[in-house]
Specification:
single chain, alpha+beta, Immunoglobulin-like, 2 domains, 6-stranded antiparallel sheet, 5-stranded antiparallel sheet, 20% helix, elongated, binds calcium ion
Length: 246
């Protein structure tokens, strides 16, 4: 009932014309997976980013998205929520989203978020920070975080059409990982990723420097439990904008 009412109000100002076009192509990564190697006692921060490309050519809708459901899958025996994250408000967990409109449901391994604001749809063309979550590493080893967009949608604005058009195939989701406050790959811990981080990794591989446990975790950008040249290459790819996330 609430959705229909909002649409009725919106229709007064909306341009006429059908907006109920169907997607014709799809982005590839509405699911994503990232492995990291952590040591017991480290704090892992996972920042979830989502964007939704413009799937609709009708200007009356544009790229405004009214709702997104997204989740993060993890092994709860390896990564447990910190007290800070457990006690955080939705506004603190999802600082870039319109307030009061986020629901968070969590079971053992999955946290599911839903953002819905039919009255104030939001442009998700650029990456948006959807949540920042802190975890305690409960054991040493490789663990995997898998975020997923379950649904991204807008309300159609055409007369007699208050259905929801699915944008999910056009959405992409990514993770930015921090360990003990340092971004994955930031091996010299100066809060920026530069070529000197790749050099630190290469020095470690060559035995010129010994990597301490935190640096070892930060250096393993591929998340396979080993520090190799592939990790340095990943840092260089990030610096060169070949990849958007380490
Ligand atoms: Ca750095
Ligand atoms: Ca590695």
């Amino acid at each position: 009932m609430k959705i229909k009412k909002v649409v009725a109000i919106a229709l007064v100002a909306a341009a006429a014309g059908c907006s109920c076009l169907f997607p014709t192509s799809a982005a590839e990564n509405s699911t994503y997976s990232k492995s990291i190697s952590v040591k017991e006692g480290q704090v892992v921060t996972a920042k979830i980013y989502v964007n939704v490309d413009n799937p609709v050519s009708d200007d009356s809708v544009g790229n405004l998205v009214s709702g997104i459901e997204y989740g993060l899958l993890r092994d709860h025996e390896a990564l447990s929520f910190t007290e800070k994250t457990l006690n955080a408000s939705p506004e603190e967990l999802c600082p870039d989203l319109p307030n009061t409109l986020i629901n968070l449901h969590s079971n053992e391994n999955e946290s599911l978020f839903s953002f819905m604001d039919v009255a104030n749809p939001k442009d998700f063309t650029d990456l948006q920070l959807m949540a920042s979550l802190d975890f305690n590493a409960e054991k040493t080893g490789i663990t995997t975080l898998s975020p997923k967009v379950r649904r991204a949608s807008h309300l159609n604005m055409a007369p007699d059409d208050d259905t929801i058009t699915d944008h999910t195939p056009y959405s992409s989701i990514n993770l930015e990982i921090y360990i003990d406050g340092y971004m994955l790959g930031d091996c010299d811990k100066n809060t920026v990723i530069t070529v000197s981080d790749a050099i630190e990794i290469q020095k470690g591989i060559a035995g010129i420097t010994e990597l301490d446990p935190l640096t070892e975790s930060l250096a393993d950008t591929t998340g396979d439990g080993l520090v190799t040249v592939a990790d340095a290459i990943r840092v260089q790819q990030y610096i060169s904008n070949i990849i958007g996330f380490i």
